[in-house]
Amino acid sequence: MDAPDFTDADMSRVALSSRLQELSESLRLAVAMEDNAPGEVSSLSAHLWSLLESELPLLQQAIVSYAIGRGGSWREIADLAGLAEGDARSRWAAPQAQRPGDVAALTAALDSWYVKHAQVEPLARVRDPFSRLLSGHTPCGRDCLICGKYEGRAVPAWAGFPRPPGGHLIDDGMWRVGHGPTPYWPAGTLLIESHRHFLDYADFEPAEAATPGTADQAADRPAQGGDGSTADTPVLLHGGHGALPPVAGAEGRRHPDRAGLHRRPRLLHRA
User: Fold this and answer.
1) Is the dihedral of CA 14, 17, 19, 21 positive or negative?
2) Residues 6 or more apart from 265 whose CB is under 8 A from it?
């Protein structure tokens, strides 16, 4: 969407969601923030109190602007706040805020932020969880996460990274093999992905059907230990993306919303 396509209601929603994003980030970091020793003044308590004291008025202003921007009345605002209408107006009526320099970029950033942190929520599987709410925007459908990550789009961390930890063990133009994203996958877990997007094994082209065994064997070698044991490599088909057949000894479960297997490594002792 271009900036002229944004309505006043869109702008107030962008402002509200940006405020919520900033507050969410501050509270997320506070979850694991260290505090002073027991018996001392709590630095965490002081931080949170100061945060809420400064942020809540700003959030209230954003909520009011959003409600008014989408056609709400000051009577409705007064009822929400438990105030007389005149008191609500005097507290929150403010000049129209100036539009940010690049509203489209801000909207895209909110989409990426949501996908990054939502993880297992259904909206993490679409590229426009926030911008789909704005007028004039045609919502996107569910995406192939493997295609998305290699095209530079935001995807949940559990879908992996364009450059996996340690780089790809194999990237021959047909298959990619790399370690699964930590800490979502056990050590030794490999993702075996096709370059080409297709639905399932039945869609293999002749060259793809002829090469899985070779890539499977090559991927298994780095996991072998000096004592002859091995952590079995997994198989994962992402969103219709092809992958190698299951490896013997792997423990897997089929994903209900995609064609493929998620296999966890298991230590095998070979005679």
Assistant:
1) negative
2) 186, 187, 188, 189, 223, 231, 232, 233, 234, 250
Beta strand segments in the chain, E: 170-171, 175-179, 190-194, 230-231, 251-254, 261-264, 267-268
Q: List, in sequence order, every residue forming a beta bridge with 171; answer none if it has no partner.
A: 176
Structural domains of the chain ordered from first start: 3-133 (no CATH), 158-268 (3.30.428)
241-269 tens-digit pLDDT = 544 433 333 333 333 333 333 344 443 33
Residue 235: partners with Cβ closer than 8 Å, 6 or more residues away: 192, 243, 244, 245, 246, 247, 250, 252, 260, 261, 263
* Model pTM score: 0.65
Report the number of secondary-structure helices (H) and strands (E) in the chain: 8, 7
Burial class from Cβ neighbours inside 10 Å (0-12, 13-18, 19+) for residue 133 reads middle
